[in-house]
Protein 1
Amino acid sequence: HLQAQQAKFLSDAENELEELAVTIAQAKKMVELIKGAATKERERVEKLFAEASEVLATFQKEVAGFIEDGERSMLGEAEADLRWKEERRAKLAQCKQNLENVPSTDTIYFLQEFQALKVAMEENLSPAPSFQNELNFTKCTQAVGAVKDVLSAACKNQRDHLQGKGIDGLSYQEMEEGLKDRANRQGIRAGRGGGIVSCFPPHPHVSLPHTVAFIIDLDSDTADKFIQLFGTKGAKRVLCPISYPESPTRFINCEQVLGVNLMNRGNYYWEVELIDGWVSIGVIAEDFDPRESYNRGRLGRNEKSCCLQWNGQNYVAWFGGFESVIQQPFFQTIGVFLEYSEKALTFYGVKDSKMTCLQQLKVSHFAKGQFDPFQNKINHQFASLFLCKLKPAFFLESVDAHLQIGPLKKDCVSVLKRR
């Protein structure tokens, strides 16, 4: 019995040793991988810092040269003016001295010296220095200060990013804990489209008391016959019509589909994946007539809807038939943030848990609306859209267009705010 136990222990020990040998080999590979990756990253960072230092050194040299050129130009003019004034003063002093030294009995000599003094006093004055370069010359400190501020802000932002912090300065772990704590205190809200939704943490400068991560289900009763639905989350435009049943809410002239969800107060956020083709994402009034003509029925081509369109080359915001082209790279994930309290709709490009504001539709009281037809249209009619109950809306423009609803990236929930 003891021999059997000993044999078993030896076998177990041998197996464990073999497993440890394998895991040690794997750990060694991991150590080497980490060291190699760190070395490469360190080399890249050193190279980038060297390039950045070279850029700063070049800029410093240019600014110093600019100061020297300005100093040289201004000094030449100022020194010439100084020399002229000193020579004139010496000449006048000499004429005055000569006149004082004339004997009172020598009338002719007196008249000659008096005339010489008079001529010297009547000589044209030298023009005052212009110093045309003075403004540029004295802007060097302002320019370098601006560069320093930009660098400081960029360094802080990137430092926060490296430390795993979000836009509002909290780490993702801290944000997640805040979400859980607020959910425990306030409870979890349910969206009308079904599913569980979580509360957004309030930004210190923006009150978001009713913000929810909105769970969207596509409404098959609204889908155009050339849109194929995949469950309640996916939609693709097809060539062959689908025999959907008759429905008074179905689009018949535009390849569009709506969410079943209604929005009429508070704030809502959802995300859409652009899988292929030309897609428009937006909101539409509940009472919009789905039988409108193609020109009037498309999202954003009327006053009852607005959208963000990807046309294969650019993003374009649409409202009331007016458009605004957006110069941003392609984002596969689009976040949509609807704020009833602010009467605002914001579209975000979402990538790697980072959010880039693509366009915010909101009334602006600044002068730019007077010169921008799109903003002018927003200023005059966009607010009236929030008098309606709204629904999420989607327009699949090209025959290969394909989109998927959500799911939300939880890190983005924590950094959501109006910018």
Note: Residues 94 and 413 are 86 Å apart (CA to CA).
Protein 2
Amino acid sequence: EDPSLERHFKGHRDAVTSVDFSRSKKQLASGSMDSCLMIWSMKPQMRAYRFMGHKDAVLCVHFSPSGHLVASGSRDKTVRLWIPSVKGESTVFKAHTGTVRSVNFSSDGQSLVTASDDKTIKVWTVHRQKFLFSLNQHINWVRCARFSPDGRLIVSSSDDKTVKLWDKTSRECIHSFCEHGGFVNHVDFHPSGNCIAAGGTDSTVKLWDVRMNRLLQHYQGNSVVNSLSFHPSGNYLITASSDSTLKILDLLEGRLLYTLHGHQGPATCVAFSRDGDLFVSGGSDEQVMVWKTNFDADYGDVVKPQKCGSSVDGTHGTGSEMDCGIHHKKTKTQDSGRTHEQQEQETSLANTLEHIMGQLDVLTQTVSILEQRLTLTEDKLKECLENQQKIIQNKTN
């Protein structure tokens, strides 16, 4: 069955720049050139919240793993962390000296990586929005930065035509991939953490193995690739292009599976939901579209590791016979050793822990908001006292 358009959100007043699902799929976040962040609630009712705060275009949005926070970055050089509720409260910090192009939470929700036109990548703690360190080897705007699934690596892509791989602990650049013929708009890790995909203005998508730093696959398109997203199974990749199409690539077969025409004008951003059932796209036509995946109903049944070494434009020189960790769900038989009861207990424990983590996120965020308000109040008080002093001095003079 082909992917099908499920929902259509209209509310932004300018091009949509970025989209993301919360883990539960109950909410969807989108950023736009209209300086707003919007949170769309998927169910039960289709409510939309418009969050105002940024002074200029919002270029990137990302939900925390718990779904209780949303990070956004803007042309106003700040990053905001929002509580995606009716009040829409946020804390704000001056993150860079240039436009912030990319925000990304680590999978444990503790760190945030941001990338900017000031040519730097910065890493922050989420809980106090404390700056940790900067990575500074790009020589042009940095478009995108992402943590690896295990949080040990960071990958970044830039208008200097390179993709760089960084070690988070040593803060060193481990490798530079220089094979792109243009600006690299987007990069991300495969769910296995073993390979990365990057796309950009040279209309290609390239997949590299990050253990051997070898090119695994190369897809030649005919239009600028603005954004890409891996399916959680790791077997598919979706891209959003300036020719208004979304393309779904089958990484096992190494071929184009579907081309979807939904947007009028460039498709700017795309993201799979955390379970892969849905994906969302945004475009310069101000539309946010939610699609039902459909094509991958049985990916859990594939068990043998796949070779990830085909090259699609007919040049087999780049093919490598490496298993790049294309990753499969356990089949039922592997679980037969554990009782149903044990599994249920584990699931409920995991859910409780996730809930506690989420509540902690909100508490920390609330404390940060209160701290910001206290600072404002103190400043106002100081101002009042100074004014009072002046009035008294004027009277005595």
Note: Residues 352-396 form one domain.
Protein 3
Amino acid sequence: SRRHRLYREELNLTSPAAPLPLRPDASWLQFHLGISRDGLYPRSSPAVNRLLQDMQEFPTISADYSQDEKALLGACDCSQIVKPSGVHLKLVLRFQDFGKAMFKPMRQKREEETPEDFFYFVDFQRHNAEIAAFHLDRILDFRRVPPTVGRLINVTKEILEVTKNEVLQSVFFVSPASNVCFFAKCPYMCKTEYAVCGNPHLLEGSLSAFLPSLNLAPRLSIPNPWIRSYSFDGKEEWEVNPLYCNTVREIYPYSNGNRLLNIVDMAIFDFLIGNMDRHHYEMFTKFGDDGFLLHLDNARGFGRHSHDEISILAPLSQCCIIKRTTLLRLQLLAEPEYLLSDVMRESLLQDPLAPILTEPHLLALDRRLQLVLAAVRKCMDTHGEATVVANDTTQPPAPVSDRGRLDT
């Protein structure tokens, strides 16, 4: 605490700060203005590349717990946007130009696989999975994962010495190995045994750009129709009823429009990364019922390269429907000259923490892609291509109220 106080006095941070102007060319603002009904950013967006660079290089000016931890402590009503768990740690880091990113520290080494006896809802949160998910989402041309980049953070200078949160300050300590560590403060499962530590100060993690505030761009959090049971026993209806999709199709908004197709997109994405923890999804209200689904919180992906969890593909295999654009992209990435593992490997080399995935995880992407295509072929054999493949290559004009971007 003394060191923190002296640091703030030295930088004159104890006096009221003068209001900072908002620069129109700030990468965070340009990213937000680029959000449209087609995705979080346009293809080949220069704003996203600048944003990734800024998140790598800009110094942090403050650090705080995320809404998850604050909800657990009763410090805010975050029920609209978070479902607190308490078994992981993430922080909100702020930068100049009003930039803000979610920091998830390294909890598991790249070469380690999730133990096979772990339930999906107690699995580790992996920083490299967040990074890899952003790259895969961009390769699939979904553009539904916020820009994410890896960075080495000095936990002393860039978190402890800039935070105003006394609770966060109180959970820092020096380990017997002389490394600086910290842990989450919450009612349960948050002890020094679950701390993350620098080496001695540097800790790698992922930084995911924040979306516009809920005041500016309201979002809905909606339960996934294929939600899993979050207990040690029992099953959901979709796990025991192969005709479950018939029930879903009768319920608005899955009865018409693109919502069910977007659910299938999300299931394919989750199957490729091995993420079983998609209990909710979010949407911008501005774009209406047919808007895209946000693919947030992917840190429980890429845990086991040796196992393919076929049940994640239930929306595809039970509903037997897929967008034509999605199928064409998957077929292209199965071609030898555009192999998904090769494209991912090259893309991930752009990240400063490369290599992000081990080779077995990259090869697992090719294997899983073939399983997705096999599921589509099985549906076609049963129902015919015209029924299975939905033509989304020509979209009807959007209603005037839904057009444009999140720039109001």
Note: The chain is about 35% helix and 10% strand.
